[in-house]
Amino acid sequence: MTETELTQKKTDQKTEQTTDAGTGPRTGARTGAQAGTPSPTTGSPDWSGVRRGPLQPGEWVRLVDAKGRRHNICLEEGKSFHTNRGGLSHDEIIGRQEGFTITSSSGGEYLVFRPLLNEFVVSMPRGAAVVYPKDAAQIVAMADIFPGARVVEAGAGSGALTCSLLRAVGPSGHVSSFERREEFAEVAERNVDQFFGGRHPAWQLTVADLVEALPATVEPGSVDRVVLDMLAPWECIDAVAEALTAGGIVVAYVATTTQLGKVVETLRAHGEFTEPQPWETLVRDWHVEGLAVRPGHKMNGHTGFLVTARRMAPGNKAPVKKRRPAPGAYGVDYEGPRPVGLAPQAAQVADPQQD
Ligand SMILES: C[S@@+](CC[C@H](N)C(=O)[O-])C[C@H]1O[C@@H](n2cnc3c(N)ncnc32)[C@H](O)[C@@H]1O
Fold first, then answer.
1. pLDDT tens digits along 148-184
2. 130 with 264, same domain?
3. Which own/partner pairs from 260-264 qualify as long-range (CB within 8 Å, at least 24 positions apart)?
4. Which of 28, 159, 227, 335 has its Cβ near the most Cβ atoms within 10 Å?
5. For residue 348, is pLDDT > 60?
């Protein structure tokens, strides 16, 4: 990698970076290194993306100043990093164990650590919007992503979620990512390769539309988990059902209530998924200082909604919901897919607010 210095402003999380662009075929599947091969950068056969030992040239470190402002820099012998509190020599960082404070030429103090995965994904260059760590954690836990799992993901976007999925499945698993936009696929490749220090052996990236490419890429019934982070996940449900193994899980991540309604109803209408489980998470930090213990003032009010459902064995229908739908839920104004076995009178109930 050439001279690369990334500065992240805490307030707007805008990034600025120059890197060597990864070169590769323009389309088609791009697969990883062989399983068992250690990462060329970390030397680790677990491909966790974690580096240990003294800091080396070519590694990324994160500098955090007293006000919490973050700067990510790629270490290079003989180089300096210029801050508004003067310069910092890379040579004073190289060779040391992470977890120390360094002082710039004009007296600014900076904490030096290697970036964690959750720090890397919010500061890396973006093509498409990324899945934030709080939602990536939910996806890994609630979609039950396990070591050795065979996972399909679409779209790859900037590769943030891909990093969490690859870390969860490990080198013995398989993550097949689909991204229909070439320029986003290139961003994802650069980010994922940078995080793992080379091409993860469990990763295959296909530049194509999921619905078109999935049947040709995986055997029917061979996939354990499918993760959909895209504008119209409901368009993929038939292809996903074909790919998933019995008992497999689909999880969709969507930004709006309209998308959530459509994906839930499409899963219900398919008939061979269990009742979809939608939810969202809100994370609030706390200020803890002496007697001043209170919620923090800043909070990400909304990131997205998640929904999971399990694949029934082919030909087996999930039990129809016993409870009557809410009044008007499937009334005359409702135009989306209707649940299998919905009683006609339930569909006819008018919305009381319209009376
Ligand atoms: C919000 S981004 C995904 C972000 C990604 N999960 C991350 O964490 O970096 C959505 C992506 O889905 C891609 N996409 C949308 N529909 C698709 C489809 N049918 N097949 C493949 N990719 C698709 C878009 O091009 C876009 O890059």
1. 999 999 999 999 999 999 999 999 999 999 999 999 9
2. yes
3. 260/305, 260/307, 261/336, 262/232, 262/234, 262/336, 263/228, 263/233, 263/234, 263/237, 263/307, 264/307
4. 159
5. no
The per-residue pLDDT for range 93-137, each reduced to its tens digit, is 999 999 999 999 999 999 999 999 999 999 999 989 999 999 999
The total number of structural domains that make up the chain: 3
* pLDDT (tens digit per residue) in 214-242: 999 999 999 999 999 999 999 999 999 99
Whether the per-residue pLDDT at 65 is higher than 70: the answer is yes
61: in domain: yes
Paired tokens of 260:
């959530």
Is the shortest distance between the CB of 21 and ligand 1 below 6 Å? Answer: no
Q: Is 305 in the pocket of ligand 1 (CB under 6 A)?
A: no
Residue nearest (by alpha carbon) to ligand 1 atom 12: 155
Our measurement of the distance from residue 323's CA atom to the centroid of its chain's CA atoms, rounded to an integer in Å, reads 35
Query: With a 6 A CB cut-off, is 129 part of the ligand 1 pocket?
Result: yes
Would you say the CB of residue 231 lies under 6 angstroms from ligand 1? Answer: yes
With helix as H, strand as E and coil as C, how does 101-152 read?
EEECCCCCEEEEECCCHHHHHHHCCCCCCCCCHHHHHHHHHHCCCCCCCEEE
- Residue 33 in domain: no
Are 286 and 297 in contact by the 8 Å Cβ rule? The answer is no
Considering only residues 306 and 327, tell me which one the structure prediction assigns the higher pLDDT: 306
Nearest-CA residue for ligand 1 atom 7 is: 130
Q: Average pLDDT in the 335-343 region?
A: 82
- In terms of domains, do 142 and 87 share one? no
Q: Residue 327: what pLDDT?
A: 85
The answer to whether 273 and 345 have CB atoms below 8 angstroms apart is no
pTM, two decimals, is 0.88
Closest ligand 1 atom number to CA of residue 136: 8
